[in-house]
Design a protein that fits this description.
single chain, 302 residues, alpha/beta, Spore Coat Polysaccharide Biosynthesis Protein SpsA, Chain A, 2 domains, 12 helices, 19% strand, disordered N terminus
């Protein structure tokens, strides 16, 4: 584990002893997320109508009041001295007690009832990994950003349900598929590639991702994604064999390109949006090769 860690805070929700009675654990890695975390935790309460969630916030390398916000909301708090999402996920796993287990980014908003639906879907046993469907909030975004997401929404892995993009859940059997989270940037893609198409899927409910407000921050986010994808393809250890990763990635890329061409053919009005999507994607991949896995984050929504 990276840095020093401490775990503290009440482990109750509405008078229920979470250590004894939690029905689902939610692990939230958070690095300087005081401004976004409060909204995330408030939404999480409404997302669980029937479930009793054990919420573990891992404040890693924070210089703001992230840990204080988490404590005030009644979460169990783990503090790490160094900023590392992978280390935060590992630390959260050490403290969390329940399954299904949900991994949630600190800036993601679950809609009401969504945690209930996700836990129920995983408890049914036919899926080992699942995620709600994504909604992108572009209400405060510039035209190029809105155009990018108009195209992005049409991608097969977004339309059909993707494990990741800020929240995913695992059953106990799904979590046993791997050991500790590896030191990779794209933990969601790492997890997605561990499961076949018949083992992962969508649950009910949705989650909201606040889109970057301007093109500069969009490129930063997409560059981080591109760098993380490339890093994962090169990784070893707990990740799937490189050949399997490359094969799945190759099929996904080919399928995406085919889907884009077909969509443009049916809906020519989307041509400008797909042009923006293509330009941002190419620029992000070029920047990712130059910058490596240096952390990039969207500062416009924080």
């Amino acid at each position: 584990m990276t840095g020093q860690s401490t775990a503290e805070g009440p482990r109750t929700r509405d008078g229920v002893d979470l250590a004894a009675g939690a029905s689902v654990s939610v692990v939230i890695p958070a690095h300087d997320e005081a401004r976004t975390l409060r909204r995330t935790l408030e939404a999480l309460r409404a997302a669980a109508v029937h479930e009793v969630p054990e919420v573990v916030v891992v404040a890693n390398g924070c210089t703001d009041g992230t840990a204080d916000v988490a404590r005030a909301a009644g979460a169990t708090v783990v503090e790490l001295g160094a900023a590392s999402k992978a280390a935060a996920l590992r630390a959260g796993d050490e403290v969390a007690t329940a399954f299904p287990r949900v991994y949630l980014d600190a800036d993601i908003v679950l809609t009401p009832g969504t945690l209930d639906s996700l836990a129920a879907r995983l408890r049914a046993g036919d899926l080992l990994a699942a995620s709600p469907r994504v909604e992108f909030d572009t209400s405060a975004s510039s035209w190029p950003v809105r155009a990018f997401y108009r195209a992005y929404r049409e991608l097969p892995y977004v339309r059909e349900g993707l494990v990741g993009l800020g929240v995913y859940g695992l059953s106990a059997r799904g979590r046993s598929r791997f050991g500790q989270f590896p030191d990779v940037t794209s933990d969601d893609l790492f997890v997605q590639r561990l499961f076949g198409e018949d083992e992962r899927g969508s649950s009910g409910g949705t989650f909201v991702v606040a889109a970057p407000r301007d093109l500069r921050n969009l490129v930063k986010v997409r560059t981080r994604t591109a760098a993380g994808n490339a890093e994962l393809s090169r990784s070893a250890g707990d990740a799937p064999p490189a050949a399997a990763v490359e094969d799945r990635f190759g099929r996904s890329t080919s399928r995406t390109s085919t889907a884009l061409l077909r969509t443009v053919g049916r809906r020519p009005a989307l041509v400008p949006s797909f042009a923006v999507y293509t330009a941002v994607t190419v620029a992000s991949r070029v920047l990712a090769r130059r910058q490596g896995t240096a952390w990039q984050r969207d500062s416009s929504t924080r």
